[in-house]
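Reviewers of the previous submission asked for a worked example of the structure-prediction workflow described in the proposal, so we include one complete record here. The input consisted solely of the amino acid sequence. No template or homolog information was supplied to the procedure at any stage.
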Amino acid sequence: MQTSSDRHEYPSHWEADVVLRDGGTARVRPITVDDAERLVSFYEQVSDESKYYRFFAPYPRLSAKDVRRFTHHDFVDRVGLAATIGGEFIATVRYDRIGPGGLPASAPADEAEVAFLVQDAHQGRGVASALLEHIAAVARERDIRRFAAEVLPANTKMIKVFTDAGYQQKRHFEDGVVRLEFDLEPTDRSLAVQRAREQRAEARSVQRLLAPGSVAVIGAGRTAGGVGRSVLANLRAAGFTGRLYAVNKSLGEKELDGVPAHRSVRDIGEHVDLAVVAVPAPYVPEVVAECGEHGVQGLVVVSAGYAESGPGGRERQRELVRQARTYGMRIIGPNTFGIINTAPGVRLNASLAPEMPRPGRIGLFAQSGAIGIALLSRLHRRGGGVTGVTGVSTFVSTGNRADVSGNDVLQYWYDDPDTDVALMYLESIGNPRKFTRLARRTAAAKPLVVVQGARHAAAPQGHAVRATRLPHATVSALLRQAGVIRVDTITELVDAGLLLARQPLPPGPRVAILGNSESLGLLTFDACLAEGLRPLPPLDLTTEASAEDFHRALARALADDRCDAVVVTAIPAVGETSVADAALAGALRSASASAPAKPVLVAHVELGGLAEALSAAASTAPQTGPGGPAAAAPPGAHPAPVGRRDPDGPSADAPDETRLIPAYPAAERAVRALAEAVKYAQWRREAAEPGKVPEYEDVDERGAAEQIDALLSRGTGLTLGPEDTCALLGRYGVDVRRALPAPTPDEAAAAARTLGYPVALKTTAPHLRHRADLGGVRLDLADEEQLRRAYGELTELFGTPEELRPVVQAMAPRGVDTVVRAVIDPAAGAVLSFGLAGVASELLGDTGHRLIPVTDRDAASLVRSIRTAPLLFGWRGSAPVDTAALEEVMLRVSRLVDDHPEVVGVSLEPVVVAPRGLTVLGATVRLARAPLRDDLGPRTLPVV
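From that input alone, the workflow returned the following structure tokens.
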């Protein structure tokens, strides 16, 4: 607990754990009056040169006045932050608000002077860059808009910290000092810089875990079969290339299974990069402390008894993460199955898997240990029998994912040269907003396939997640828009992964089907139609087809410009032998090599020999033996070229991994995997030109901000009244048709005279609002007589005017009634939704969604994404409506919500879209205080 300072309570929300450039972690927190001794100790460890750069003069020690000044802050005009490791300062930053002439000032002065000091031993780790992000966020919170910094010209490192941050800057040289001034408003460049640094740091933190130079297994006992002893045995069996140590307090031996043994990690005379912790939960804190003091970089905590066991375990888990972060360590787990890295230079199997998976190009992530076992088993089985050497590059099971999560692993895989496809089994997503952002970037470079468990139930007990108000189908749709390949089962996960790992992306949805079974070809044809593909008529080669027939047919199909992919169907012939299987496999592989840009899949029926043969070596060198593919190739066939992506792979004669043909035991599975590849390829093409967020000159962003501040000064959680709603939306160019209250028939008549006939009379009571089907609306009232008659009918049918809250509104041009909404979901973030108005659309769930900010391409696709979209484009001879105007309204609402996070809900209902223009007849807006930290704020690790 920190002591508050002069004017404000201690701002605990400024505390954060950050990942540094080298992958280690540090804690950022406000400096308080309790930090005097820490500050003095920190300053004593700073070199004279760094002190000179900070104070522009020799400054060997801090005076008592200095210490008071640097530890007493009001958290408004004077703020200091420290980066700490092990509770000790490694860097500090402070700002002082200044006015004209650089003199101390208070609000409304909006400029501050900022200065840093980083301990020499920690320079180059990105500490100053991280502190700048956090002090800038604090300053913006305190209405400071600009920073000024004076730096000696020789202090090039600090000048680089400021210039590389991406803010708009002014620089001038005066009296031997470089003066930098920069606005704190985030820019596209500053946000890009921040996210690039985040990616490098988080990727590095995972890389340190997956490629350690030394590993200590803590809890490896004498008795075989225990968890620690099993992990130690698996590491040895995998051939780990680094140094390996066994640690157990009860060990008296110097070796265990040929591995150096110690009673404590502190007894190891060399540096330890990674510790696998396999001791009972009550003993883990002591182990973590020993690891932290010894300089261990990361922990894989296999131990159970944490959040999965209930409230007491959840608190133990929080304390575990806090303790590890204190020492700058990251954790995988607790309750983890472990991690694997098959790279030849590492060969790490720090897991409970008894066998090392085949090396390959697939990255695998599983939160569940049981599902991790199943995935490794299926990939191992399918990798040998279907796609040859297809295997795993890295495997991570995060267990309770108290620290390292799927987001961190995505950061690592993004630029990992050994991973071509990422497969993830997720039971929960702790930060969906960040996951969606990272998934979009990753999917633009390599396929990302995800299956979600616990879709219809709460997240597992060990997982801390944000609640979402969105249906699962909506979250899935948003993930698909980010390029994620969403599948429903583990089988589909593996099916899609194997196709994407070894075949090119299809250039389109047109599918050729050929094979030796007419029935299987027709099943494949129907499956293609069901998955939205465009199959060509199946080509039946008959059961008498030879390998040469298959080769010619496949080569012709691949050469056909009307074909984007080929599904080959095959059934065993009577008396078929393994030689024939190999001959068919060789024919298919050699034919597919003639069209490297088109994928080929095989659907086979109980044809194990073919599946094996499809993965057989296809070297350009002659092969001996009756079953060799070269010997079995038909006349005119050419062997597929060898071109390994990994030159350090296990065998120079291994097949060309890029052209291994995946085989599936059912046509539906092959087609489903192909359909996912087609949709993903289309997303990649569209992502290359993502569109833009339009700039509208008539948007009054500053005026809207002032109005929102004024409204929120009355309280939080506001639903705006009609006048405020219309005013706020109007600042963003969204005009809402005026509606006048009509509490009596006479006032209704007066309102109609003001607006002009014809008018509409409608109730605004919650149970009747937007429900024209219930009769609460009367349209096209041409005169006062019709208005009064309609008024009487409504009150007679539904209740008193006080209950109905009737209003009068001028008639809008006829068109299609639609609904545009935007909400801030706690988990998914800002989401724009669109659908047609009416109970039918609500009943069918016919609503489209896009993540905010929405681009012009997003808006156009959103309009066309709903099943009832044909009603907007002239269905059955009706006049097409003005969808361009509709898209513009969507873009303006998106811009409003994106510019002002205080706007947590917007509903435009109905929006009547006419052949020319549109009319917004009803609108509501909800406001709330913006979250103090979000995904657009400074880099932080999740709060525990």
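Residues 824 and 830 are 4 Å apart (CA to CA). We consider this example representative of the routine output the project will generate in years two and three.
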